[in-house]
Each structure stands twice: as structure tokens, then as C-alpha cells.
Design goal:
EC number: 3.1.3.2
Order of helices and strands: HEEHEHEEEEEEEEHHH
Shape: globular
CATH architecture: 4-Layer Sandwich
GO molecular function: acid phosphatase activity
Organism: Arachis hypogaea
Number of strands: 11
Enzyme class: hydrolase
CATH superfamily: Metallo-dependent phosphatases
CATH topology: Purple Acid Phosphatase, chain A, domain 2
Helix content: 10-25%
Largest sheet: 8 strands, mixed
Distance between the termini: 30 Å
Protein name: acid phosphatase
Length: 235
């Protein structure tokens, strides 16, 4: 299950669709989730509702993607899927000097929706390094915010993004410019285990790991239920 990145953007004269090759090769279940575009969709698996957003599709409050996101969030049943995850390409929380600020506009438009809906985890790539945040919202540590993980370190011809901004922001828990991969294990409705593995180490070695408690079990979902209903029903 994939979403588009900057390397999938095509610039072909007289062609309105900038993702011809991507859309021809990667057919995602967008129609099944009520989306009008292959660039953003959702699906459910193992007690998790997963939303795939498009960093390179229009995302302001008047866009089709924004309207679809509101509609999709309104259908989420946290009793059926207690975990709510979101994935997109360009990170919103990034203390690396590479691609600094590129996700700011999308964050400004959509982060309030994700916060009100009590999204548990947000995964992004783009920056060729690894970083994990504390629970955060609007640039500040917030117990009802999402954990943001940048996992753009799978390997590429461009090399690593090795320079970070110092001092390290308070919301940033762990960061490292090394090639690696991550594993997310949804243990039950209340707990998940995330681990990051540096490629230079043996597979059993966890370079970063954390137990994550769902926002359903922490009470955040219940406290924001009325606010969520008002937000999703406002035109």
C-alpha cells in the first residue's frame, strides 16, 4: 500500500495529470474508500484505520482531498479500529536541514483535523534519515497529539541527509542519519510497539524502540468526541 512522493511527479507539456506513470502502475483502493483520486485513500487492517494522504495533491480547506479526509474521518469507528494512522510523503515535523519547512503548508491546513480526530501515529519519508517525535501538536509537546515518525532512510542514490538543526527541538525524541527500516507491531487495542533497526547492525538489534499507548485508552478520544463531531459537520 503506497502513496506518491516527489520522484513520482511528472512534468509533461499539455498533460494535466502529473502522475500518469504512478497511477498506471500503482492502483490503490481509492474508490472503495470514497476518494476520487488514486493519490489519497484509506483502508483497514487488524484493528487499524490507515489513511494515505497526498503531499503533492491539493490539500487546502477547499480541496477535494480535504473534503474527502473529513468524510473519511467521520466514518472511523474507534471501537472497531481503535488505532488511527496517517501516512504521507513530506514530514511535518522535521529537525533535519534537508527539506526544511516543505510540509508546513499541508500541516497548517490538515493538522487541526488530525488532532481533533486523535490520530495516534503519522509516518512520512522524503528526508533521507530517521526521526521520531514525542506526541506533538502545533509545534508543542501534547499528550493528545500524534507521534510523528520520519522513516525516509531505506536507501537511495542521493545518500543520507546527515545535518540536523541544533539544539534539538523539544518535540524531537530521537534522530539519526543512518540507513535502516522500522517495524510496527499492533499488540492489542491499547498498546503498540515500534522499533527502528539500523542496517549496519544485526536484525535483532533495536537502535530505537518505544511502547506506544493508544489515544483511545488514554482518554483523548473521549474528551474530544464533541469537538470532532462539530469539526467534521462544519461545511
Amino acid at each position: 500500500m503506497v502513496t506518491q512522493g516527489n520522484h513520482e511527479v511528472e512534468s509533461i507539456p499539455l498533460l494535466k495529470d502529473g502522475f500518469v506513470s504512478y497511477n498506471s502502475r500503482w492502483k490503490m483502493p481509492f474508490e472503495e474508500s470514497g476518494s476520487s483520486s488514486n493519490l489519497y485513500y484509506s483502508f483497514e487492517v487488524a484493528g487499524v484505520h490507515i489513511i494515505m494522504l497526498g503531499s503533492y495533491a491539493d490539500y487546502d480547506e477547499y480541496s477535494e482531498q480535504y473534503s474527502w479526509l473529513k468524510a473519511d474521518l467521520s466514518k472511523v469507528d474507534r471501537k472497531k479500529t481503535p488505532w488511527l494512522l496517517v501516512l504521507f510523503h513530506v514530514p511535518w515535523y522535521n529537525s533535519n536541514t534537508a527539506h526544511q519547512g516543505e510540509g508546513s503548508d499541508m500541516m497548517k491546513a490538515m493538522e487541526p483535523l488530525l488532532y481533533t480526530a486523535s490520530v495516534d501515529l503519522v509516518f512520512a519519508g522524503h528526508v533521507h534519515a530517521y526521526e521520531r517525535s514525542r506526541r506533538v501538536y502545533n509545534g508543542r509537546v501534547d499528550p493528545c497529539g500524534a507521534v510523528h515518525i520520519t522513516i525516509g532512510d531505506g536507501g537511495n542514490k542521493e545518500g543520507l541527509a546527515a545535518k540536523y538543526i541544533n539544539p534539538q527541538p523539544n518535540w524531537s525524541e530521537f534522530r539519526e542519519a543512518s540507513f535502516g527500516h522500522g517495524e510496527l507491531k499492533i499488540v492489542n487495542s491499547t498498546h503498540a510497539f515500534w522499533s527502528w533497526h539500523r542496517n549496519d547492525d544485526d536484525e535483532p538489534v533495536k537502535s530505537d524502540d518505544i511502547w506506544i499507548t493508544s489515544l483511545v485508552s488514554s482518554g483523548c478520544v473521549g474528551r474530544k468526541r464533541n469537538e470532532l463531531g462539530n469539526t467534521l459537520t462544519t461545511p
